Amino acid sequence: MISDPADLLRQHGVQVTAQRLAVLRGVSAQPHGTAFDVTEVVRAEIGVISRQAVYDALEILVDRGLIRRIQPAGSPARYENRVGDNHHHLICRTCGRMVDVDCAVGDTPCLTAADDQGYEIDEAEVVYWGRCPECIEESPAPAGG
């Protein structure tokens, strides 16, 4: 496992820049953050950076497989650095909180479609929607509903 982010970028053929390193660290610091969230983390770390520079860095990091873009319905894209495994997400309909959840049936069964139509499947996205424990506690669902 590579612990140096600069070495990680180099191994994936990405030119090392202060901005890209900061964006990579920003995604790590703000799991499931939006580009806006990552921009705020990066600005706190290195100062001035344009939103476009953050978007460009995110795109390169996604294209090279260093981070993952998650785009749930009705939500802006979010980014995470947990790549290379089979996991899914839980999203709270009330507050928008997103958390990782491992596949319930193991590593590859989630990649087995009933009919793959000839596709070579390499990824499956499962998003569970509901309410997080904090939102349930603040406003329980009405009885009988």
As residue ranges, the low-confidence spans are: none
String of helices and strands: HHEHHEEEEEH
What is the overall silhouette? flat
Main beta sheet strand tally, sense and closure:
3 strands, antiparallel
Average per-residue pLDDT, rounded, comes to 88
Percent of residues in beta strands? 15-25%
Q: Tell me the radius of gyration.
A: 18 Å
Counting DSSP E segments of at least 2 residues, the number of strands comes to 6
Question: What order do the strands of the largest sheet run in, or round the barrel if closed?
Answer: 1-3-2
Name the assembly state: single chain
CATH class of the largest domain: Mainly Alpha
The computed structural class is: alpha+beta
- In the CATH hierarchy, the third-tier topology of the largest domain is known as Arc Repressor Mutant, subunit A
CATH superfamily of the largest domain: Winged helix-like DNA-binding domain superfamily/Winged helix DNA-binding domain
CATH structural architecture of the largest domain: Orthogonal Bundle
Task: Characterize the structure shown.
- It is a single chain.
- With 145 residues, this protein is α+β, with helices and mostly antiparallel strands.
- It folds into two domains: 66 residues, Winged helix-like DNA-binding domain superfamily/Winged helix DNA-binding domain (Arc Repressor Mutant, subunit A), CATH 1.10.10; 54 residues, 2-Layer Sandwich (Dna Ligase, domain 1).
- 34% of the residues lie in helices and 16% in strands.
- The strands form two sheets. Strands 1-3-2 form a three-stranded antiparallel sheet. It has a three-stranded mixed sheet with strand order 5-4-6, with no helix packed on it.
- β2 and β3 form a beta hairpin.
- α3 crosses α4.
- The longest helix has 13 residues.
- It is flat.
- The termini are far apart.
- The mean pLDDT is 88.
